[in-house]
Specification:
A 16-stranded antiparallel barrel has the order 1-2-3-4-5-6-7-8-9-10-11-12-13-14-15-16. It has helices spanning 2-34, 43-48, 153-156, 277-281, and strands at 50-63, 67-81, 86-95, 106-117, 122-130, 163-174, 177-184, 213-220, 226-235, 249-260, 263-274, 286-297, 302-312, 324-336, 339-350, 359-367. A hairpin with an 8-residue loop joins strand 15 and strand 16 (359-367). It is globular. The chain contains four helices and 16 strands. It is mainly β. It has two domains: 1-48; 54-367, Porin.
């Protein structure tokens, strides 16, 4: 009898919730009618065609360079399907928990674009979007990768997270093969930052568009659990014509992302080639890095990994060894496929200096 009463209570609650949803949908529809068709579809259809998601991650870093707790990222996704062929997607992020004068954090619009299906296999997009380079820049929700922090190669050589304003095309070339091509804002590096590419991101905030960039990616996914891809980017002047001693820039990247049964392997190489006497004078004419990351799923909930990273943002200087090497090893625990707990140890060797960065990291992340 107690169970039956609980069932009846649940049914009553469900009926009440249904009535509330229907009332809300009617209110939305009435509002749309009153505003002369701001939403041509009914209120309920508008709700059904709008998606909300997000992700977040908090880190504890106990390293030689810092000992801190940081809610690193809080992100919300908003998307809307206008029709079968036309859609909108956006991503709004809060970094380091708070922003404002004197604070560590930022509020950033990382994606906001319109996508249109030209055919069943070809698409066009325009707006603010992620540059299609590397493994992490397109997909970086915390439950999708090992390690508390994003790997240093895809932070310092590929400046993840890297978003731009522009337009482009993407689609299928043939079964298993796809492409992405876009023209967008370029970097704006400077001699004061030794032409470091990460410092050159403009984030589409009144971005200097004197010298645009173009990016092409070719990707193969013809085997389940296997992604092979290569990207190239060209920009005529990496300083937006503000430095007569700098010139064009090429980025080359290739990677493999493999997950077969319980075994996983990620490996990536990326290199920048910057022209001009300015970058050459500080060794920044060549900036490169690579990593290799094997992993193993002990169970669907538990996975272990190790990763070896090497990178150098002044690799063109043969007289000074500025290369950095970092080894990470750790464990991920997924109590749910969209929730992850992480722990790893880190050993970083900075060639040419005594500032190594060793210690351990803990993290928690989610996505929905």
């Amino acid at each position: 009898q107690q169970q039956q009463r609980e069932i009846e209570a649940l049914k009553a609650g469900q009926k009440a919730n249904t009535e509330k949803v229907e009332a809300t949908a009617e209110a939305v529809e009435d509002t749309a009618t009153a505003t002369q068709g701001a939403h041509p579809a009914s209120g309920s259809a508008w709700i059904e065609n709008t998606q909300v998601g997000g992700y977040g991650e908090m880190h504890y870093n106990n390293l030689d360079s810092k000992d801190e707790i940081d809610f690193h990222r809080f992100v919300l996704f908003f998307g809307h399907q206008f029709s079968d062929r036309l859609r909108f997607f956006s991503e709004l992020e809060v970094e380091h928990a708070e922003s404002g004068d004197g604070q560590n954090g930022e509020v950033e619009l990382e994606q906001a674009y319109i996508e249109y299906d030209i055919t069943q296999t070809q698409r066009a997009r325009a707006g603010l979007f992620l540059v299609p380079v590397g493994i992490l820049n397109p997909t970086h929700e915390p439950a999708t990768f090992y390690g508390v922090e994003r790997n240093p190669v895809e932070s310092n050589i590929i400046p993840t997270t890297w978003w731009v304003g522009g337009g482009g095309l993407s689609g299928e070339i043939m079964p298993g093969w796809s492409y992405d091509f876009s023209i967008h804002e370029g970097l704006d590096t400077s001699a004061s930052n030794n032409y470091a590419v990460r410092k050159g991101r403009q984030k589409t905030s009144e971005a200097n568009a004197n010298d645009l960039a173009s990016t092409l990616r070719i990707k193969w996914t013809g085997m389940p659990g296997v992604e092979l891809a290569a990207s190239a980017q060209y920009q005529q002047d990496v300083t937006q014509s503000s430095d007569a001693n700098a010139g064009n820039a090429w980025l080359y990247e290739a990677h493999a992302d493999i997950e077969r049964s319980s075994f996983g392997l990620r490996t990536l190489y990326a290199m920048w080639d910057l022209d001009g006497s300015g970058p050459r004078s500080v060794g920044a004419d060549k900036q490169e890095g690579f990593y290799i990351e094997p992993s193993y799923k002990i169970t669907p909930e538990w996975g272990v990994f190790a990763r070896y990273n090497r990178w150098d943002n002044q690799a063109g200087d043969s007289n000074f060894n500025s290369e950095k090497k970092q080894l990470n090893a750790g464990v991920n625990y997924w109590p749910h496929p969209d929730v992850v707990l992480k722990a790893d140890v880190q050993q970083q060797d900075n060639e040419g200096s005594n500032k190594n960065d060793n210690g351990f990291n803990l993290g928690v992340g989610y996505q929905f």
